[in-house]
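re the bet — no i am not wrong, look at it urself. input seq straight from the record:
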Amino acid sequence: MRTLIVSDLHLGAGSDSDLLRREPFRERLLEAVAESDRIVLLGDVIELRDRPLAEAIALAAPFFEALGEAAGDSEVLVVPGNHDHHLLEEWLATRRLDGSAALRLEERAGPELGGPLRALARRMGRARVELAYPGLWVRDDVYATHGHYLDRHLTIPTFERLALAAVERALGPPPNEASDPLEAPEGPTDPDEYERAQAPVYAFLFALAQGATADRRSPGPSARIWAAMSGGATRAQKVRGWLLGSVAIPGAVGVANRFGLGPVRPDLSPGAITRAGLAAIGEVAVRLGIEAEHLIFGHTHRRGPLEGESGWETPTGARLLNSGSWTHMPGLLGSASPAEAPYWPGTVVEVRESGAPRARLLLESLSREELSAP
């Protein structure tokens, strides 16, 4: 069994940074798909925050049709993230109405529930499409999730980090959380508690996109909110603000901490952002009790670990592996070679029946000019 994992395609992005809408880039991924037994789309596959839903689905359709042809009758698992969380909203609502048990680390659903997932499944021919959330056990010792729960624990003032803190503050502690901080850890300890605060933020940003017009689709509602809040930011701050897949608000640190939306810190250097993301996903692993040897996640667009990097493990001892992205952000590439540039697009993760998961950079042979070509 060979599983291929890919994340953060952002198909339909208003900035047109999504490479897989272009056939030359798509062909490289589909070659790897054709050699695999199972394909995992690990979140933020479709960009549902920049355009109305029907338009986003139409723009993504050619990719899903080609994916279905390459996959044949293989299993295709869709694991939604924060930018395509709407794919599972109907399913989550149905679970609540049915009084279903609490979310476990892996829950499965077919496309029969309808909604956008059914529309995508129709595009994929004979492929066996299922939804998995909030992640899945790829192997007994390998767990994969998009990684958006880490936003709850970031010390970087991203838009979503502050929005989540504001929602949690408004909602108060969940019913099953002890009011005495000495009796229980502050914050979420199971997937439903993460969803309680995060789902409303995602639904709000999705709703904003439904009213988007052609001249207001780049780079999306959250970025427009950020721009209004941080008009004096430098270009370097704006570039760094995208390093966790969500815009950062450079001037918000003091305000956030003063109003109990932190703790967040002012350091937006690439190293600090990487460390914050690793610490945050490690916190998620501890709180959810993810007992795996390997934890694969996306969300930050920062593939890793690169050769020689340390710190890529959770407090529980799981080795971390990030699946990068398929979006082209020239301002993040720097002058390093593709192998040394952590935001170079085109990463896939392969998981076989044994051995450690392995990341491959499928676009390593391309130049910066080729990445930018229309």
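see?? The two ends are 36 Å apart (CA to CA). told u. also The mean pLDDT is 86. so pay up
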